Amino acid sequence: MKRANYHTHTIRCGHAVGTEEEYVLAAIEAGMEELGFADHSPQPYKDGFVSGIRMPVNGVAEYVETLLALRAKYQDKIHIKIGFEAEYYEDIFEDMITTLKAYPIDYLILGQHYVGPERLYDYVGFAFDNEEKLAGYVDEVLAGLATGYFSFLAHPDVIRFTGDARVYRKHMLRLCQGCRQMDMPLEINCLGMAENRHYPREEFWRIAAQVGNRVVIGYDAHKPEALKDEQSYAACVEFACRLGLKPEEDFRITGGL
Prior knowledge:
Elements: E1 4-5, H1 20-29, E2 34-40, H2 60-73, E3 79-86, H3 90-100, E4 107-110, H4 131-145, E5 150-153, H5 165-181, E6 186-189, H6 190-194, H7 202-211, E7 215-218, H8 230-242
Parallel strand pairs: 1-2, 2-3, 3-4, 4-5, 6-7
């Protein structure tokens, strides 16, 4: 089993279940040494749009206070890091960072689920064949990672492009090469593996293997018991090794926001 996980959600995002303490107890039972929480960050949209799949701005303080208390309570059993999974949108990014910097946040991971302003129909996990949207996803991801705020790229293959394979390869090669230049790890996602989603996508990871990207495995836990899912974790390891990738099983996040 993995000894650390940095992709953990809670009930606060509106589409996961379980309290922070339930995840901590599950991680301890699984033998983890470090658990990082990365619930979906609030995004302060300028048009007043309120997302139903992420923590509201007024929920950050309680989230952080709860995790600080749990860090102290379980300090002899596990180390807890406080983070967020965030999107990158240029026009609101600095506002988001300013909001989060008011708190003792340890890290951010980039999980880009939309191209442009968040709306249901823009979700990149819905099948589409438009090259402009694919290119826009890669542009936003690389721009976000270039800010220097993110520790790794979550589920880079979540985007479900169903068009020409040559077009897919062109843009995913650009993404992988950009990440290698920035020494940015890419995440193989256990949730996608466990639920047999369209990712992990072998076509993407063959490109990553060719480029020589760094690879980590993240549980993307949306329920506490996911942190004890040895089968899905082992399947991700096997998947990676079969393609010539070597997951960094001792990967640790250091530094702070």
